[in-house]
Request: fold
Amino acid sequence: MNRKEIEKVETTSINIAAERKKQLKAIFPEVFTEDNIDFAKLKATLGKIIDDRPERYSFTWAGKREAIQMLQTPSKATLKPERSESVDFDNTQNLFIEGDNLEVLKLLRKSYSGQVKMIYIDPPYNTGNDFIYPDNYTDPLDNYLELTGQKDSEGNLQTSNPETSGRYHSAWLSMMYPRLFLARQLLRDDGVIFVSIDDHEVHNLRLLMNEVFGEENFLGNIANINNPKGRSDDKFIATAHEYLLVYAKNRNYTCWNGFEPDEKVLVRYNKEDEKGKYREIDLRKTGDEDLKEDRPEMFYYFYYNSDNEDLILTKEKQNLDNYQEIIPIREDGKLGRWRWGFETSREKLINLKCRYMPNRKIWGIFEKDYLEERTLLKPPSAWTYTDVNSERGTEQFTSLGFEKEIFSKPKPIGLIHRALTLATSKNDLVLDFFGGSATTGQAVLELNHEDGNDRRFILVQLPQKTNNPQFPTIADISKERIRRSIQKIKDSENGKLPLQNRETPEDLGFKVLKLSKSNYRQSEELPSDTEPEAYIEQLELFNDPLVDGWKPENVRYEVMLKQGYSLTSSIEQITEIESATIYKITDEDKRQHFYISLDNQFHFETARTLKLTKNDLLICRDMAIDDTTAANLVLQCRLKTI
Reply:
């Protein structure tokens, strides 16, 4: 057989431009000519949908084209596992990834597309000195390695983006656009994203997210009152809040919870009967325009007998002995209307109560609103809760034994906790790709511990330098905070029985991976739109496409990632075959698996012993099989080679 016909393993992340072209071709095959898009045909196909007017509403900025180019450039990097920095590496479903989040998001794209239920990010606010993502459009991986000191050229992570810069807002938008685009791809159809921001860029961020997520999927802009007294160093107005922009992947599928009533609400439930605590809600509509003539169908009569507490409901006026007539009378004495229609009042008559109001000298009808029957409260657009104050974030950080100066203004756990409460449950996956001090990780662990759910997190953080010898990078602070949060939970449970409602053991671990160079030898630079076959031809120039000093575990993780498998897939060595080192990698969520051998030689008998079928994928090194073995393997199973 022709060895070139054997499928090769992927060596880069997904080519987004090629993928979108493929999607377009599936929908509109008629607009393609010689595999290129004929825009005249596309325009004719879409008709009036296309807006080609010279002046039209649009959102653009200097550098947008380059930002799209950056997005479409496949990543040649990989994620290298770091067992020594992890906790419960082999069993945990939580991930901490150290690296530039744009490259990491590209690498996660294939494995986690449509898997994430909630994203929370706290990106740089573009205040001048917090701009640490100067993307290099030529080679983003090399740029990252230089910035983190992994190459000879030392870089300085802390760069500036002063307001005097001609591209002050544009540089920030170019940084955010590709990251938000990829983030949307990772969200489930019912997923939600929360983005913290302040006044510097909230207006631009809203327009940017309208473009990426669609303005129809805007759920709200929450004013997060994080400093109730206001900042004393502000010149004119003491800023007391930041913002939390909330968008859905598709609001038609959004699963949304609410908040439990707080003490301010609970104190209103000050009455009680055999059904439990309740509060009284006046059945009258009390607005200025709530007159009888406005909605005559909402006007009807109640009759009440105080001797036997009998309450009767009628559409027409009646003359009933020993019954008090009750109608909705407004404060100004005019006839009003009820909050419910007649049929609703008849259905809920058992929950209605009649009593005399001595101040107004009239009888009224009240709904018994029971606490036990109350649905969760919708979140307000202004969060005035004490648990979202910035001071709480610092207190929670230092309570883990950190010095206050180590990390400036960590987000409060309460803020993330509330977002998680609204958007997640059970074993949902949560992503934060501006990980910071890892508040999101601690919030997920603590909420799981409280409610018995099994949410999982993926945190991504750039190893930004700190000039602190104890924690040389921000990523080191993040990892240590997660470790201390885990220990705090373990210490609190010493001597206690585990939660009875938990179906699986509590996941108190996290797996650390680091962005690094690929295990595959890199060939000369090719254009971003180069077909995969061209990359394969270049790789065939090498006798061994793996780099010198490669490690089997690192290669397994790179293959796993670029095959689209979860980074928490189970990796099981097949011990029944002593003559070969073979691993079975299984992604339980996707119900898929493959076998991998990195031995210098692979014999067909090994495949027969494994009892591989056409449904099984086997990956081995190309140099490990001869033509005869390759031909036989192709007949027995799916074969890919490195």
Remarks:
- The radius of gyration is 31 Å.
